[in-house]
Amino acid sequence: MSEKNKLHPLTLVTALFNRAKRLIVPIVFLVFLNIGEESMPIFLILLFVVVFLVSYSFDVVRYLRTSYWVEGNRFVLQTGIFIRNERDVQISRIQSIDYQESIVHRVFHLTKLEIKTPGKGISLDALSKAQALQLADYLHHLKDRLKSTVEIEENEEEAPSASMDQHSGFSLQQASVTKELYAMSLIDIVKMNAMGDVILKGFLVVVGGINIFAELIPEAWVARISALATSATWTMLTVLVIGVFLIVYIIGTLFSVIRNFEYKVELTKDYITIEKGLFEVKSQTIALKNVQSLREQRNWIQQLFGYTSFYIGITSDEKEINSDASKEVQEKGQILLLPLVKKKELAAMIQEILPAYRCDPAQAVVPIRSWRRFVQFPLLFLVVASIGISLFVWQLAWIIGGILAVFYLFYGYRRYRKTGYALSPNELTLELPKWFSTETIYLRKERILQMTVKQQYFLKRSQLGKLEVASALGDSAQEKQLSFIEEKDCQRLYDWFVEEGEAGEYGTAKENQF
Length: 514
Prior knowledge:
Layout: H1 11-22, H2 24-33, H3 42-64, E1 67-71, E2 74-79, E3 85-90, E4 96-101, H4 103-107, E5 110-116, E6 121-128, H5 129-147, E7 178-183, H6 186-195, H7 198-213, H8 219-231, H9 234-260, E8 264-268, E9 271-276, E10 281-287, E11 291-299, H10 300-305, E12 307-314, H11 323-326, E13 330-331, E14 334-342, H12 343-353, E15 363-364, H13 371-392, H14 397-418, E16 420-424, E17 427-433, E18 437-444, E19 448-454, H15 457-461, E20 464-473, E21 476-486, H16 487-498
Antiparallel strand pairs: 1-2, 2-3, 4-5, 4-10, 5-6, 7-8, 8-9, 9-10, 11-12, 11-18, 12-14, 13-14, 15-16, 16-17, 17-18, 19-20, 20-21
Helix pairs in contact: 1-3, 6-9, 7-9, 13-14
Protein name: PH domain-containing protein
Keywords: Membrane, Transmembrane, Transmembrane helix
Pfam families: bPH_2
């Protein structure tokens, strides 16, 4: 591995596929622009061809000038078109070795390798599965040797063999006892979409698309649709709306099945691995030591049927190797681990993955006198805005203002009834209601960065307070707040946090706010 190695020659095929994929949206846009025209202007076709050929020629040069090798404690990637640049990662700091397979990778039995560390990562676009296994084994072997402070010997025969994986035929993690913790069937994916917001998101996408391309739709089509809508009865319109929602749901479910096909979570040694995908298989590995918080989120429909979604929060200052590939799984350090799981089964799963967490249920703590504080300022704004708009712009604006006021009253009541916490010697549970869901946060004491109590004059006089808790998430921090709780609860939580000998290595910013 100390010698320079090249990517697989079929890298040129995957590069060709990626280039073609990037041109789909511009081509579709130009087709819409030229609806009604006899043919697309020849200079546009030539422009696309020239741009494609020039960009692909850059990919060819980049492939020819790309190589990788191991040098001591460094894994080095050298690449560039006009100027060769070297990128390297320290082998001793490697957190995970993941893979990603597009449909082209799968057809030609290739894989894209992603070597991740806390600070940066390296991506190898196309390797054969044998190459990927050999490289992953070699890096794991060197990492173990470096950890044990034994002199590195280049003896590849001592490297542990890779474990086989039923989903993709191989695993890039170190050979160890692997246990499957969670798997989603097709029925689970359909239920997840039915209980989620896929219909609302799909409807918004359709409405947005209509607004964007409205001017491109032929006037004859618009006139015909308007005539049909004018002559239709309420029954027909109702059936039409229901049909549109069903179509949106089916399309959304189809995309979700493609994205989450054979979704599974495995526990291997000190890592969790998420694998999923039909045409494009993706793997993501999370080191358990990087888990900073746990989050459970359930909407009204999930709560009605006893389901919930479970997330873990991690720390990493890593710039994503491929942001498009990670958006589905990770957003600002929040990783959706269990998309849909029975509430009664979640505690046992958490104990198996992270036994240090107790996950005690929260108790509501907001006093009845705090209810008005959740709604008084939004209601005041709505009243003033509704009166002003009704007098000077639109006379019926007060109706919308009244409907929004009812929603805010209901939301304020939910926050009063649901906001709460639970406290154990080393763990804090926060329960925070949102408009259409409720989230529960589980934080270990040593993972809390800062706890602040906020009180202005009127809250002080009413013996109330706001407590803000900050913990690490991604490359920054997340802040959660318990609003308008009793002053004694603020004092209890703050005393628990500043208690000596318990705050751990992350305990900072403990200035008393009382």
